[in-house]
Amino acid sequence: MKHEKQRWFTCTPIEFGGGPDFFARDSGLLCRGFQQIGIESRAVMPGARKPEDETDLIRTDYSNLESAEWWRSHQLDGVVLYAWGSPQFRHIARAIRESGVKLVLNQDSSGNISPLNGLRAWIVEQWTLNGSGASPALSIRAAFQILRGLSIGIVRTDLLRAFHLKQGHHIACVFPDAVESYRRLCRIYGGGALAKKVELLPHAVSPSLRFDPASHRKQARIIAIGRWDDQIQKRPSLLTGTLGRLLFENMKIGIDIVGNLTAEIEAWRDNLPHPERVTLHGKLPHEKLRELLTTAQIYYCPSAYESFNIAAAEALCCGCSVVAATRPTMASFRWFSSQNSGILAASDDVTGHVQAILNEISLWERNERDPISISSHWTSILHADKIAFKVLELAKK
């Protein structure tokens, strides 16, 4: 299904690489989603052009991003800006708004961004994001950030964030709990009129990621994907602790670990009684990752916090169910597990995570998890063309 001819750009204000990896997710993938449904689209990013940049990426001076005239010169119908509502990028939002086009502000966030709309959840998020408990120095830093947010942050950060959000015609949040959190905050920032701008718009997933029963067969395997050199967010020690005990509790399950590996993870695998049951892949190209996701039954995420977790969304589209912690900082998984598509751990420790995975394995063994149904539901919501259509529907309001 094609849409009437329009011209939409996506923009990120950070100078990332512009190669295939960029166009496999976030603003790059939404650009491709627009193209898929017949919308003329390019992605915009600051900086000098790089050799790997795709042809549909526009590089420009950062000053142009803050120029209404520059945006007007492209004769656009709309822009989706991936700038987190950050005060730092408020002038870009204002320039796009002043250019006269529709502006959709993507909020890649759990929603716990201010003490004004939920003090406890915000403190938990700040405490977690700043690595509290990992060391005395990090705990001091976390306490300082909390005190700063409760004092000068309300004057500086919240006022400027409110200015940024008020520039948007729509404020797009990536899962339902974040929508509710942003609506509470926007009522404080700008009353009911601003709160009405908040809408659900998940991150896009590549249309190539889906489960096809004619060519795919699920196996008793668990997959975990992450930057395992990140001790604070990804919690590799919880990963190995949980999976090590799981291998003892269930003698049939196999495990795939994908992403930045560490010497500690490699030593853990080598010292297992049956190391052949765990495959360490490192970073993988898209095609190989798709093969693993369509084969695995369960995606396991031991993270302490995630704003969305695109890997989980990709796994769901490939017919996996998900297991993760029950935490305010992992609220996207309440949604991800809501369609007979996963379980949240009762306690955020090895025991709780192991039990949640064992329960999920049992559901698969009893045929109470259906990869066709899981994939069908989530691809209908998350595939890039569906997200592009959703943007156009929002723009009609």
How would you summarize this macromolecular structure in one to three sentences?
The chain is an alpha/beta fold and 397 residues long. Helix content is 44%, strand content 15%.
Give structural notes.
Helices cover about 45% and strands about 15% of the residues. By secondary structure, the protein is an alpha/beta fold. The strands form 2 sheets. The protein has a 7-stranded parallel β-sheet, sandwiched between helices. Strands 10-9-8-11-12-13 form a 6-stranded parallel β-sheet, sandwiched between helices. Strand 6, helix 8 (about 175-195) and strand 7 (about 200) form a beta-alpha-beta unit. The two termini are about 20 Å apart.
Overall mean pLDDT: 94
- Ends distance: 21 Å
Q: Could you describe the largest sheet, including whether it forms a barrel?
A: 7 strands, parallel
Radius of gyration: 21 Å
| Structure classification | alpha/beta
The helix/strand order is EHEEHHEHEHHHEHEEHEHEHEHEHEHHH
Number of strands: 13
Output the number of helix runs.
Answer: 16
* Strand neighbour order, sheet with most strands: 3-2-1-4-5-6-7
What is the overall silhouette?
A: globular
**Beta-sheet strand percentage?**
5-15%
> Percent helix among the residues?
40-55%
Main attributes?
6-stranded parallel sheet; 397 residues; alpha/beta; 15% strand; single chain
Which helices and strands, and how do they pair?
Blueprint: E1 7-11, H1 26-36, E2 40-46, E3 57-60, H2 62-65, H3 68-72, E4 78-82, H4 90-98, E5 102-107, H5 119-129, H6 136-150, H7 152-166, E6 170-173, H8 176-195, E7 198-200, E8 221-225, H9 236-249, E9 254-258, H10 263-270, E10 278-282, H11 286-295, E11 298-300, H12 310-317, E12 321-324, H13 332-336, E13 342-344, H14 350-365, H15 371-382, H16 384-395
Helix pairs in contact: 1-16, 4-7, 5-6, 7-8, 9-14, 15-16
